[in-house]
What we know:
Chain A is mostly beta strands.
Amino acid sequence: GIQVEQSPPDLILQEGANSTLRCNFSDSVNNLQWFHQNPWGQLINLFYIPSGTKQNGRLSATTVATERYSLLYISSSQTTDSGVYFCAVEGQNQGGKLIFGQGTELSVKP
Amino acid sequence: DAEITQSPRHKITETGRQVTLACHQTWNHNNMFWYRQDLGHGLRLIHYSYGVQDTNKGEVSDGYSVSRSNTEDLPLTLESAASSQTSVYFCASSESTSGGQETQYFGPGTRLLVL
Lengths: 110, 115
């Protein structure tokens, strides 16, 4: 099956810093989503981005489908950005079934 | 506003008991999914459904069952709870379109402890 690798596994930032999280996947995908799991465990949709670039406030994401990777950019980080960021992909003909990466745990210090 | 809810949010049970976790969505989505989240494994798919009366096994389906009698609900049943089923369970839903699958939306999760 399709493999999803995220890097780095852990990241500590000072408030105000920028960061880039990476998601590599092993095969073509129909769907790619980025999620933020907050410290209370809630999974929050950030982006649906099987290809191209999207921006939402301080967050943006780019997926280069032909090279099988996606990047999540966080600018001017805030303590509320802390948590785990997951990339999840749906392979072709997989009917909506998402395969999750192991996540990047982000801690933003004041 | 449309939403997806899970109940209970926390559950403690004993080994061997039958447990049912509820999932209810008001998005009117065709597709519904159950995942479990464990340390070191991320989220893994248990069962999923593409519509009423449709159910399918996912990656880690042993010991679990689901039923889909209406669009809104997909209850997950642990037939005989085992300690290995201690986990956090997430329900999700999505719409399917002619162009493919769309964004999955997740419920708040249920923390299950099997003693």
